[in-house]
Structures are given as C-alpha cells and as structure tokens.
Design goal:
Length: 542
C-alpha cells in the first residue's frame, strides 16, 4: 500500500476511534437525572466541618415499654387506628434501643464526624416532673455517648424532638400550658447533669415552628388541635393556639439555656442552640413586587417567628402588625433570658415553595387569608409546573439553591452566627420505591445530597459560617404520620427482620467522607459493592 494511502487509512481509523470513543465518553459521562454540574468533595469545606447523620428517639428506638420507660404522646397517638399510615407505630421502630451498638458501628464504618440524635423524655422521666428519674434511661444514653466517643464520633444531642410525656399532655394539655416550661427545664437540667460532660453540642428543641404547625394549625400531630379552614378537629383554634404553644417553647428554651450557661457551660465547655424548620420561598409571579413581599413575610412568619426572639428579644414586626394582641408579648424579665439565648442556629431544610401575596391579590381558600399565615399562599407549582423534582412528600420538591438562599438569609438576618445544617434529606415518591432493588439503588438520594452539599459549599465560599451538615437519616425509620411508608435512610431497614442494608447512597457517603479530594469510586463500583454486601447478608436473590 502506498505510503500516502496507508497514512490516510490510519488517519481515518484514528478519526473513527476518536469519534466512537468520544460518543462513548459522552454516554458514560451523561449526568444522571437531577445531577448538578458541580462535583463536590470534602475539600470544599473548611477544616473541622462536621459531617454527620441524624435520627430522633421516637423514630428509631422502639422498646416503648421497656426498662421503666413511660408512655409519651406518640405512643398513645400512634395506637389510635387511622392516625398513622398503615397503622404504623414506634413500639419497635428500628429497635435501636437494642441495636445501638450495631448502629454506631454503621456510622463508624461510614466515617461520620458526628451523630445527631434525641433523648426520649419518658425514658428519662417516665412521668415528667411528677415522678422519679429512670436510671435505666440515663444508663442507655450514657452507653450511647460512651460508644460514640470511643469511636471518635461527636455527639450532637437534641433534648426534645416531638415526644412529650403523656402525663403532661393529660395534666395540662402539653405545650399550650406555661407549666410545660418548668417541665422542660427539669428535663433539660437532668440531661445537662447526667450527660453534659460528654456533650459539646446541645439542641434544646427540634423545629418548634414546624411542630406547632403540625400539632396546632393543621392538627396532624398530637394533640390534633385545629379549626377550619385549616382542618376539622374536635378541639383547637388554629389562629391562636400555635402562637401560645410556640411562646411557651421559646420561654422553656430560654430558661433551660440560662441554667446551662450559669451552671454547666463553664465547666462542660459545650455550646447550645435550637433547630429551626427553614423552608425557602420564591415569588409565584416572577418579578412581582407583591409576591416578593409575600416571600419576606413567609420567612418572617416561619424562621423569624422562632429565631427573632432568641436573637433580638421579640417577634418580627410583620407578625406584630398582622396578629396584634393574639401574639404573646415578652416581659422585660423574659427578654433578659430569651434574647441572645443561642450559640448557633440549627437549620433543618427540605424544601422550597412559591409564595403569593394574599393581602392585595385573590388566593385559593384554605387559610392564606388568615393572619397566622401572614396572608401568604404557598404552592409547589407555577402554572402546573413543579418548582423542582418531586419527592415522597407531596409538596416537597428538590431545589438545592433554596438551601443556599436560606443560609444566606440567616447569615444576613442573624449576623452570621455559626450555623449547622442539622437535617437535610430525600425520600423518593412511593411509586419509585416499591421493589427492594429500586430502594437500594437510590441514585436520586446521592444526587440530592451532592447538590445540597454543593449549595452549602457555595454559601461558605460567600462567607457564611456553616460548620456542619447532617444527612437525614442514618436509616429508614418511623416517619411520623406517614409511618414506615416513607424512607429517608442511607440504610434500608427491613421491616420484618430489622436488618440494616446499605443503600448505594451509604456507599457514596462513605466514599465522599473518606477522600478529601473527591469520591474515588463511581456508580458501577457502588452497585458491585452492594451486591457483595447482599451476598454476605444472604440476600443476593432480591
Ligand atoms: C423532622 C424529622 C422528620 C423529617 C422528614 C423533619 O422535619 O425533624 O423528624 O423525619 O423532617 O420528614
């Protein structure tokens, strides 16, 4: 073959190879659905940043009547047929009470820096302050703390996460009564005394603002109080009760922090904060000034409702303006211990919604014309187009930029005080999580965490003082009124055997945490490892 024609053929072959390989490369590098362009690694976060996983007591512990534990409001509520999907309850939950060593081992194998969990009030105080301290409860949490510390995992402890002693619910209606403040302080003091030398991060109360929404506006959580148009309950007033309950929670928090600072913080050296449920909003009508104001009001009536008193000593002015005398007032003495009562803000962030003004515009019925809603209508879609990819919770959409904006909002409104993303997580829509294979191959959860972590990293680059990120949740668990139908875990929990099996998101998180400069493995390797794990567990024929 003449030299020139051989050269041409080689050239053609080379071109063909390049063409084919670039097509192949394109196919291989095609981003999976929902994946953000930015890749994310530990090196995008400052030294000392805490990566963790999180759970709460009622959602995982089970052992609801063991070793002296008293009944709480959720034990009672979940036993009423029809209250929880598929009549689930927390009687056994994930049996963490008996399997905590295994669970700590799972976290150790993931390589997390920290673990956020909560203390079951009635495991420590079966009858609130009307009975004795349960030594078995104290021992249980001491064992958890000891094993975490042994494994080099920093405990991040929430004192109260939705469950209150049933005794207090019956005696005086739970958080509607100012007497609850003394109960909470009693409980918190026992926690500081018994565990404080092992705990550097305390959260007083989880998402008080979401809790009162669910318990006293919608009536979905015990004690199921609400009034029309928010819901049809046998008791309650959605316009007033949430304001009273949250006020009591804020005062309870302030009193507990005062005690911690006066009697414990100096010698124990921990910090104390609160966790707020923080949604982000975008104006429904783009570039519309009224809807922009609705966004501002929505944030004030959400985040500001809880955090403004703790930072500035009073509720946001918008709330005062619209709610008038229905909004409780703080006395001078109360302001003294409420104002400045957090060392950091814990942010639980799951979703972004559109906000529409209802002061000057017409809105659909359902409560947005009420002051308690700040005259704002919230929706997940604009002209039938959802704001982000759907998740299991109708109305929860994947919008990573919403977390960045939330953090930046906090940074500005609260003088860039230290922040931790104390919860962020994803559960797939139920029809996408039917087969075990689908559940375990949770690429969407990986993409969710990657893109939200990228959002946090971006806010840090812009100067926000975010110091940690906790994935909700370590494992599938009791998802309140949704029972076991929604799965937020990095680990799958088999409801019959309670066996924990890593989803590929767990393998991804482990890989992410192990390599500061980026994940070493790809999806193919995660699938391979999962198969291997399943073989070891004797579950290969799924
Ligand atoms: C709560 C968790 C809950 C999670 C997912 C958060 O608001 O703190 O207890 O499981 O949302 O719905």
């Amino acid at each position: 073959m003449p030299e020139t024609s051989r050269a041409t053929t080689t050239h053609r072959r080379l071109l063909l190879f390049c063409f084919l390989s670039s097509v192949l490369c394109l196919v291989l590098s095609e981003p999976v659905e929902g994946e953000e362009a930015e890749d994310i690694s530990r090196s995008h976060f400052p030294d000392g940043f805490l990566f963790g996983t999180t759970t709460s007591a009622y959602q995982i512990e089970g052992a609801y009547l063991e070793d002296g534990k008293g009944l709480n409001n959720w034990d009672v509520f979940s036993h009423v047929p029809g209250n929880i999907k598929e009549n689930g309850n927390g009687d056994t939950a994930d049996n963490h009470y008996h399997l905590f060593l295994e669970d700590i081992e799972l976290m150790h194998s993931l390589g997390v820096d920290a673990y956020r969990f909560s203390i079951s009030w009635t495991r420590i105080l079966p009858r609130g302050r009307f009975g004795e301290v349960n030594p078995m409860g104290i021992m249980f949490y001491n064992r958890i703390l000891d094993h975490l510390l042994l494994k080099g995992i920093e405990p991040f402890v929430t004192i109260h996460h939705h469950d209150i002693p049933q005794e207090l619910a019956e005696r005086y209606g739970g958080w509607l009564s100012p007497l609850m403040q003394e109960d909470f302080v009693h409980f918190a003091r026992i926690c500081f005394e018994s565990f404080g030398h092992k705990v550097k991060y305390w959260v007083t109360i989880n998402e008080a603002n979401l809790f009162v929404e669910m318990a006293y506006i919608r009536g979905w959580y015990p004690p199921s109080h609400c009034s029309p148009p928010f819901g049809n309950c046998s008791a309650g007033n959605s316009n007033v009760e949430p304001l009273i309950a949250l006020h009591n929670m804020i005062l309870a928090h302030g009193k507990a922090v005062k005690i911690y600072r006066q009697e414990f913080q100096g010698k124990q050296g921990g910090s104390v904060g609160i966790v707020v449920h923080a949604m982000w909003y975008e104006p429904l009508r783009a570039n519309n000034e009224l809807d922009q104001q609705a966004v501002t009001r929505g944030l004030a009536f959400g985040v500001g409702w809880l955090l403004d008193p703790l930072v500035y000593g009073d509720y946001p002015s918008e709330m005062r303006l619209f709610l008038g005398d229905a909004l409780p007032r703080f006395t001078v003495d109360e302001i003294d211990y409420v104002k400045g009562s957090i060392d950091y803000i814990g942010i639980n962030h799951y979703l972004t919604l559109y906000a529409k003004d209802c002061l000057h515009s017409s809105c659909p019925p359902g409560g947005s014309d009420h002051a308690i809603r700040g005259y704002v209508y919230f929706t997940g879609d604009r002209d039938g187009v959802p704001i982000g990819q759907p998740t299991a919770n109708p109305g929860f959409f994947v919008v990573p930029g919403g977390l960045e904006k939330t953090v930046n909002y906090m940074k500005q409104r609260y003088n860039n005080m230290p922040m931790y993303v104390t919860e962020n997580g994803y559960a797939p829509p139920p029809d996408e999580a039917v087969q075990l294979q689908q559940i375990l191959h949770d690429v969407k959860r990986i993409n969710y965490h990657k893109s939200y972590l990228a959002a946090v990293a971006s806010s840090i680059r812009d100067g926000a003082d975010v110091r940690g990120y906790f994935a909700w949740s370590l494992m599938d668990n009791f998802e309140w009124v949704d029972g076991y139908t929604l799965r937020y875990g990095l680990y799958y929990v088999d409801r019959r055997t309670l066996k924990r099996i890593p989803k590929i998101s767990a393998l991804w998180y482990r890989d992410f945490l192990a390599h500061s400069s980026g994940n070493a493995l790809g999806l193919a390797e995660y699938y391979g490892r999962l198969e291997q794990d399943l073989r070891v567990a004797g579950l290969e024929d799924l």
